[in-house]
Design brief:
The chain is 40% helix and 21% strand. The protein is of the alpha/beta class and 456 residues long. The chain has 2 domains: 2-229 and 431-454, Aldehyde Dehydrogenase, Chain A, domain 1, CATH 3.40.605; 234-420, Aldehyde Dehydrogenase, Chain A, domain 2, CATH 3.40.309. The relative contact order is 0.14. The structure holds nicotinamide-adenine-dinucleotide.
Length: 456
């Protein structure tokens, strides 16, 4: 498999893909490795993850540059991602003991009865990952999975393979055994072959269409399925805000990582009374974005990771224009080599247009005028997805009323495109099943055992 730099289409490296036979071998290895790993004292498992954290922190620059070279994320953002992973690891390390502690829920000496719940690892799990934030979405799975005593067959995205191999290397250096964390390398076909193994669970981050295939494949083995999928995340801007500040914040929410975040702002609804002013400030921010070589520290817009996404963006722009949208900026590929697309802002958009319904996953945003909260809310919830949604207003009560009605796993007041290790990360509808992060994101790698103890 060729690893291609999306900024200039040069081949960086060729790597060997796994086959059915190698995957089967890896599964057998992991099956045996997991049994031993589950018996390793928690303090030792924690020490290995802590060492992994130290290595990540020490090698942030090298790792950031490697990630940029294979998926085009601007290097400052790539380093931010490695850095952001440290806080997530800290959260898991801090909470793992309490989650694993057995819990006595009933004890009655007169009846000689004790009821206790203990937690056991699931066993061997597959971690099939997306490329857009490989440290975040991978780490949300393999860190708690390893801490809880599971073995992990880790399939990085074919667009973040070198990063996946670098993560593997650091985990081994940190003391995670080679039969407990095992990389499986290749495209979607290899991912599908991995799911033919009798795994105990699959934890997937990726698109809705692939998520459906994962669930179907997993059903054959009846394994636990967790899916973190895409979104079409809306923001509503009320008339009482500081327009310039909100325009800047939401433009960053829409264009950070080139719009390739599951929680990127993908739709903006603005109260009619400030619409023109908002759009003007928004455009001012977008015009200030520096595009170009993602290895340059100052670059904000780099190339898209996948060349195929350029066509999807072009199709969304053409569809919107045909249905009456106005293109205020961008709308097409940039000339020259690399998967570059101009930062694109559309107004006069409606929900008849694909750009307001389908995940764009690129530097493109539609801004729609609304007359009141009820209209904004109806439009925000008019989607098959349900990952995040948010509102900007000075009025806390108004915000909380709207947030209570938003059909999304995460809701925001005066912020967007935000993830916290302390809060569950979950999607509704086509955005997925289950949660990572928070205590729930540790428990998900465990199965409870109910102890009925009668001391007669
Ligand atoms: P994708 O669905 O194309 O691929 C994801 C992974 O699945 C890759 O490793 C791929 O090789 C593998 N795969 C593909 N077909 C498979 C099959 N049939 N069986 C098994 N594995 C298969 O997604 P992507 O392009 O890597 O990622 C972008 C998507 O991920 C976007 O929709 C984005 O919103 C979503 N995402 C969601 C979250 C979240 O937390 N909800 C986070 C990041 C990305």
């Amino acid at each position: 498999m060729k690893i291609i730099n999306p900024a200039n289409h040069t081949v960086i490296k060729e790597v060997e893909e796994d086959t059915s036979a190698t995957i089967q071998e890896k599964f057998k290895l992991a099956k045996a490795g997991q049994k031993k790993w589950a018996k390793v004292p928690l303090s030792e498992r924690k020490a290995a993850i802590l060492k992994f954290r130290t290595l990540l922190s020490e090698q942030k620059t090298r790792l950031g540059e490697l990630l940029t070279s294979e998926m085009g994320k601007p290097v400052s953002q790539a380093k931010n991602e490695v850095n952001g992973t440290l806080g997530r690891i800290d959260f898991f390390l801090e909470h793992i003991d309490s989650v694993l502690n057995p819990q006595t829920v009933f004890a009655d000496a007169a009846q000689y009865l004790n009821e206790t719940i203990s937690q056991e690892p699931l066993g061997v799990i597959a971690n099939i990952s997306a490329w857009n934030y490989p440290y975040f979405v991978g780490g949300n799975v393999f860190v708690p999975a390893l801490l809880t005593g599971n073995a992990v067959l880790y399939k990085p995205s074919e667009f973040a393979t070198l990063t996946g191999l670098a993560i593997t290397d650091l985990l081994y250096q940190a003391g995670i055994p080679k039969d407990v964390f095992i990389p499986v390398i290749g495209t979607g076909q290899v991912g599908a072959q991995l799911l033919e193994q009798p795994l105990n669970g699959v934890f997937f981050t990726g698109s809705y269409p692939t998520g459906v295939k994962i669930a179907q494949a997993a059903a054959k083995q009846l394994m636990k399925v967790q899916l973190e999928l895409g979104g079409k995340d809306p923001i509503y801007v009320c008339e009482d805000v500081n327009v310039q500040a909100v325009a800047e914040a939401t433009a960053d929410g829409a264009f950070y990582n080139n719009g390739q975040s599951c929680c990127s702002v993908e739709r903006i609804y603005v109260h009619a009374s400030i619409f023109d002013s908002f759009v003007e400030h928004f455009m001012g921010t977008v015009r200030g974005f520096q595009s170009g070589d993602p290895m340059n520290e100052k670059t904000y817009i780099g190339p898209l990771t996948r060349a195929a996404q350029l066509e999807i963006l072009e199709r969304q722009v053409a569809d919107a224009k045909a249905k009456g949208a106005t293109v205020l900026s961008g709308g097409k590929r940039m000339s020259g080599a690399g998967n570059y697309f101009e930062p694109t802002v559309l107004v006069n958009v409606t929900h008849q247009m694909e750009v307001m319904r389908e995940e764009s996953f690129g530097p493109i945003i539609g801004i729609q005028k609304v007359s009141n909260d009820a209209e904004a809310l109806a439009l925000m919830n008019d989607t098959v997805y349900g990952l995040t949604a948010g509102v900007y207003t000075k009025n806390e009560q108004r915000a909380k009323q709207l947030m209570a009605e938003m059909n999304a796993g995460s809701v925001y007041w005066n912020c967007c495109d935000r993830v916290s290790p302390r809060l569950p990360w979950s999607g509704r509808g086509h955005s997925g099943i289950g949660a990572t992060l928070s205590v729930a994101g540790i428990q998900t790698f465990l199965q409870p055992k109910a102890w009925h103890l009668k001391n007669v």
